[in-house]
Amino acid sequence: MGTVTEHERTRAALAGAGSRLGELLRAVSDPDAASGVPEWTVGDVGTHLAAVYLAYTSLVSGDGAMDWGDIPPPGEGTFAERITAINERSLTLFERERRAQVPDFIAEQCETFLRVTEGMAPDTPVAPPWYDEMPFTLATLTGLMLSETLVHGLDVARGARLTWPIGDEEARLVLGQSMPTMMAAALDPVKAKGVRIAFDLAIKDGPSLAVVVDDGTVTVTRDAPPRAYDCRIVAAPATFLLVSFRRTPIWKAVATGRMRAGGRKPWLAVRLGQLVVSP
Questions:
Q1: Which of 101, 153, 168, 187 is the most exposed place for a label (fewest CB within 10 A)?
Q2: β-strand 231-235 against 196-203: which pairing, if any?
Q3: Predicted structure pTM score
């Protein structure tokens, strides 16, 4: 029996998380409750997730189901501005009276995504127009779908006062499959201007990422050859995922022992979160 690849494990995790998401959304008693996303209700988060699933499924199926007219064309707008635009567009997918359909819609789109991409090479290129021509692959996209499901599932659960566990193995898959591309895409070039820092990001029992910021640009390399780093960050997978998306404060991660900094300049650890945008 052959070894199960990380991409295959990510697909299996997405199938499981997508199923859990449907159950979570069906259990919501008050869709107008405040969610874990400022200014969004629990129902808004569900609608956003429906749009995410539709958007990513449309990319791989080629059915053109999404209208990208509100998204700035390539080369225009910052990363945060472009993501803000797609997020606002996503809330219009389901009117309030149709939001009860969201759980079934998400289940259908998840099944379609996994069916259409069955057997496709992980390095198959895809081109999400809202990311301004970043070099995405199917593996990146699958990891990003899992990320959206896990993080926004938590936003729904917090607002609805329901449980939503995020396992370290699920988080490892996100960090390995999509984080290198997304960290590069989300760098704030203004804040990074003149900054030169090399971070060694070590995820417990998971991928190691070399994050090198160099005067407004960044390279993120998975399992890079040995080199000198300014700061080494060691973190538990789920904790780093939630800190990255501003769902857990860094002080809490440090206080609980699930994240620590070392190296020649450990105090630079906080700069990573300041340099990478989280719209």
A1: 101
A2: parallel
A3: 0.91
